[in-house]
Amino acid sequence: MVTGFSQNLRFSESFKAFSQMRIAGESPTQFAFASVIRACVVLGSVEIGRQLHSLALKLGLACELFVGSNLADMYSKCGFMVEACKFFMDEQLPSTHLEFQLGSCHRHKLLRLQIRNLFF
């Protein structure tokens, strides 16, 4: 349901379903996490996104492909470019995703020098 709401641009319902799932004691899947993180991107709510990032770390889902990619995407699209790039230094995601997100950082006008200083 969380993913369905998010895919149909019903982001507040997506958040509500996610919250109800947590209250009921259900563990969210990586797909549910990815969906609510995407909602944070669309709504520009980086504070909720950071809370979701913390919860994903606590539950061991931050290094999952969909969750990790959406977290980095959220940070970059909300203007936190350094955090977006640093995310991949801390998380255990495949290198192809690192390359993709570095390209994303470049597209969002992060200077090459900043990227170079982060990784070298």
Topology:
Elements: H1 2-7, H2 11-23, H3 30-43, H4 46-59, H5 65-77, H6 81-90, H7 95-107, H8 112-119
Helix pairs in contact: 2-3, 3-4, 3-5, 4-5, 5-6, 5-7, 6-7, 6-8
Structure characteristics:
single chain; 120 residues; mainly alpha; 8 helices; 76% helix; 0% strand; globular
Quick overview:
The protein is an all-alpha fold and 120 residues long. The chain is built from eight helices and no strands. Helix 2 crosses helix 3, helix 3 packs parallel to helix 5 and helix 6 packs parallel to helix 8.
Separation of termini?
42 Å
Low-pLDDT regions? none
Write the element-wise H/E pattern from the N-terminal end onward.
HHHHHHHH
Number of distinct beta strands: 0
Number of helices: 8
Beta-strand proportion: under 5%
Task: Work out the helicity level.
Answer: over 70%
Give me the secondary-structure category: mainly alpha
Radius of gyration, whole Å: 14 Å
In the residues, how many domains can be counted?
Answer: 1
Question: Main beta sheet, described?
Answer: none
